[in-house]
Amino acid sequence: MENPKKISVGIMGVGGYTGQELLRLLLHHPSVRICCLSARAEKPKPVGELFPAFAKRIDLVCEDHPPEVMAKGCDVVFLALPHTISMQRVAPILKAGKKVVDLSADFRLKEAGEYEAAYQTKHLHPEFLKDSVYGLPEFYREKIRNSTLVANPGCYPTAVLLAAAPLVKGGRGARFLIADAKSGVTGAGRKISGDLQFAEVNESFKAYKVGVHQHVPEMEEILKDLAGESVLLVFTPHLVPINRGLLATLYVNLSENLSASALIAKYRTFYEKEPFIRILPEGVFPEIKQVLYTNFCDIGIQVDAKRKTAIIVSALDNLVKGAAGQAIQNFNLLSGLGETEGLL
Amino acid sequence: MENPKKISVGIMGVGGYTGQELLRLLLHHPSVRICCLSARAEKPKPVGELFPAFAKRIDLVCEDHPPEVMAKGCDVVFLALPHTISMQRVAPILKAGKKVVDLSADFRLKEAGEYEAAYQTKHLHPEFLKDSVYGLPEFYREKIRNSTLVANPGCYPTAVLLAAAPLVKGGRGARFLIADAKSGVTGAGRKISGDLQFAEVNESFKAYKVGVHQHVPEMEEILKDLAGESVLLVFTPHLVPINRGLLATLYVNLSENLSASALIAKYRTFYEKEPFIRILPEGVFPEIKQVLYTNFCDIGIQVDAKRKTAIIVSALDNLVKGAAGQAIQNFNLLSGLGETEGLL
Amino acid sequence: MENPKKISVGIMGVGGYTGQELLRLLLHHPSVRICCLSARAEKPKPVGELFPAFAKRIDLVCEDHPPEVMAKGCDVVFLALPHTISMQRVAPILKAGKKVVDLSADFRLKEAGEYEAAYQTKHLHPEFLKDSVYGLPEFYREKIRNSTLVANPGCYPTAVLLAAAPLVKGGRGARFLIADAKSGVTGAGRKISGDLQFAEVNESFKAYKVGVHQHVPEMEEILKDLAGESVLLVFTPHLVPINRGLLATLYVNLSENLSASALIAKYRTFYEKEPFIRILPEGVFPEIKQVLYTNFCDIGIQVDAKRKTAIIVSALDNLVKGAAGQAIQNFNLLSGLGETEGLL
Amino acid sequence: MENPKKISVGIMGVGGYTGQELLRLLLHHPSVRICCLSARAEKPKPVGELFPAFAKRIDLVCEDHPPEVMAKGCDVVFLALPHTISMQRVAPILKAGKKVVDLSADFRLKEAGEYEAAYQTKHLHPEFLKDSVYGLPEFYREKIRNSTLVANPGCYPTAVLLAAAPLVKGGRGARFLIADAKSGVTGAGRKISGDLQFAEVNESFKAYKVGVHQHVPEMEEILKDLAGESVLLVFTPHLVPINRGLLATLYVNLSENLSASALIAKYRTFYEKEPFIRILPEGVFPEIKQVLYTNFCDIGIQVDAKRKTAIIVSALDNLVKGAAGQAIQNFNLLSGLGETEGLL
Prior knowledge:
4 copies of one chain form a homotetramer. The first copy, chain A, has helices at residues 17-27, 47-50, 67-73, 86-95, 112-119, 137-145, 155-168, 198-201, 216-227, 260-270, 288-291, 320-334, and strands at 7-12, 32-38, 45-46, 61-63, 76-79, 99-102, 133-134, 149-151, 176-183, 206-207, 232-239, 246-253, 277-279, 297-304, 309-316. The first copy, chain A, is of the alpha/beta class. Chains in contact: A-B, A-C, A-D, B-C, B-D, C-D.
């Protein structure tokens, strides 16, 4: 007999890399019943036929459900949809009184105008922006608990913000950051692109969207919220020829003399109770392989004293802590479950 | 009948990645006769037996030659040896009146004391340091032409210095740089290491030697020479899961208002006559795949005006422009050949 | 309060790729309490310090425990040790009345002489061979349930035997097979080897141990057991530049006219009740990515009618169904748990 | 002053992987003047703008030339075009009295009907089929010298036929072969495909077109020509997550007792004078990395005496000996140049 207290969940966009990872993780979640899966498909098909990796693991028909159907069958709906599509789906679910964890960028910025500048599209539901909560539990845990619409952060923002926060927060913190970030290929989502063909990416490496990445406003907005005043962020993303994982290297000018060990102590205190943040010992730095398939963000810290610069390196799995895992962490919070359930 | 004017060359350390690449490139060089190949080997063996990739391509026996033998048979000897080994081999060759292109770090720094601090070993031949020339032809072409001992730069310094020079040179240039660099695995040389096992490197990415890399003194010394005063460099190397290629992303504070196109123009002027430097058009950034197996260094330029920061990205093949190709460029110069011979 | 009925388990050799995978999987297993972890280590250390991927996931000290200590603390001990080491550890555990799942080759062959020929070492405990059970649940489920020493199959034998069995079994089955197998790098275990350096493996591909692989006796022994008479197997392993996964392509002469769909039907019937075998639809063939991080073995089937040859392709994750996952499947059986527990 | 005896060549389809490789190799060729480059492009552009890897290496405008223009400017035209496109371009060039090396499959089969069955398209110029020569110099050297239209073999056929020939040729040779082949991704040509996206190919491995590959007729036709009677070939291609390189493993039943060393001797004799075939010593097998960026085909040989089976492994670079390098070898032959010119 199935646990009657299980929470019914659905995923819209289960065919993308993030949707697939959500499904993989939710299958292990002890308090979840997966009820509805939606994907673009010509006709309804068993999940295991559409996505052979899931054959014999889940017995459910996947089809192109409208949000009204998702709302009817689920307590919580995960939207693993591209930017600009999520905002077309969210209203019927919220109006039915159900909760949403949205993995797109559509509800992350507080001002519709900023969204429109960054994504070059009119925002369809600015009325939801003031109540949506930015889903970084390490900073906004209580708000998330009381929310009905969580805007799950992007993978770059998660890595950069977690690495930056202890240096930025409060009155005398840093107000200028450089973040040099490197992401695996699934960070770009599942799309058919000449640039992402195997022979174009493999054995290569490049910077892209230099000086113009659409996630900078999202990061600067949260940094401002943490700092209480504007913070400038220079951000350069790079493409690493790996499937998953993301590493960010931050450079911060130090106004005071601070040893690496003192800075590590400050980070340890800041993240003392966090289940998914691991501050590494002095002289040890994150490697993507240590966080793959986990919800951890690892942070390593160095100080170049002669050049008065702190170097903060963070790493996470872009599909877990940078997307699906963090979405489940948010889901746990807004469902009143243990925050780490299904994630350790 | 063979061209009697060909220059006789030898390679010590032909078994390493750099030595193999030198051999590959020299086989195409129209003015070179390869006379002596030396490698650690239990007994003399045909090159094609020791290194199967060269079977049927060169008919020469490779053995563990002492430098005296190399000096006898060659006009120019390439030392593709690890740091600290080169300086044990160089004296007999120079004393025999032959020329040396040394690919190790042993003769790059002008002060023996700095070498000893960086490499933790006593320098055996400080008397050669004042006459050795740093083999970056873009900056020291004339000196190289008149030299007998060229210290070929490391791959990281080549990428960083070429990207930085136009912003650093002269009176009002930058005096503080951040260089975030990413290298393929052959940059570490051919050695058996647990850290470099396939399953440890593949699908991962990491920073290493954060704040303590031994190439920083080499870079700061040349930057100082270019600038006429001290320049500080924050440098973080990272390991990319690819065989070859290196990309460096530099961040430089801009004291004046400068558009990307103006900065690109400045770089184009600076490198106008250089055969191996390619300044990319605005909005285009280097990719490692575009420089693989070539002696080019590609440079892309962006300005983040709001944050007053120039972002300079350079890419090269660490085994070619970062090692063997540059060594041949230096060899061409000190042999009175055309600088690009065998390299285009 | 912890479930008092949980089974106490330990792992010897937790530092290898297989040991790490076992630990990862056992952390998710609802009926397991991990009590003892043993690895070669200079001194006892928390697991999360020795293996940073496990920091904050398990709170246990790992040390170089002798088997007597493992026996005392555990109901079942997994031996994730290299060939020839396992047989040095197993006796004290069995004598203490505890059960063993051995992932090495030491107890797979029934005859000590065959073992000694294949592994070039004297067998130290031939007395255990007659009672050890070959841990391929699809063929030996009942024996495993009643066993105290399960010899977990190698990854190559699992993929080859599962693909071959329906064609080999019984009176008129095939008696000659060709298996061309391709494995990721972790199949070789965690060892420091010049051949397995990243730059030696990446962007390459090779056959190895052609005609002489030590797993052939293991496979021919089980094939003989299935067939009731000798079966000859030509086996060639290849190294794929990926971390994990294994694919085998079998070629079998067909004595009778048989369409692909008829052969697929035969396989479906053969494996009808198996939870971890997925027979793919006609025209679809296995891909390693579909089985990664799962305990499934996918099998695709084609018939080349003109050339009277069946082509059977199987794929699995060498660390899961080819090692740790299958070990847990065996553990579930010999512990009286549900066979799929912790594995779906 | 340029060598007046240089041969003028052009490439149609220079934007594909094969076209790019041809250009790279021809730039090194001492007897070639590259006159015309054609690619699909909206408007004429310098090669270095269209293909940044060639910036500063060649100064030529590339445009979508019709074959008539190519014919006017060139002595020899390389067609690096997809199957079915080549036959639309070839006539004007041949009619102008110029020579063609065609890298597509359009002129490889002798019977238009076989072509139409394999490629599902009507053949537009069956009249050229009887005079076209299959461009495998090791078998058809003299015919190629006298030809005007060379049909350059595919990469799979080159590897399989070179490995098979010594066992197949003549009266008592093998008449049944199994070839299990593995290719890097560029073997599929440059096309935008969901299946060839980085994250779909990387860390995976699969068989494809099992039992139905369109190159089987080409291989069986040449095998028949070598054997003097029909030969059956079971062929399975696989996709390796690497950019370039191809390895084929052949299984051949041995009717007579033959040791590995005797078989190796037979192969050495067969290929004694071939500049690009390397028969490896006993116990050594090909690795893709040893042939990358070269025109060699390496062959390793083993005999499984107990199972009366020869195992022949061949490796080559699919873009060189499997395409562009072999095309230049053919070009050298039909131009009266040294066969290895520009290739060693």
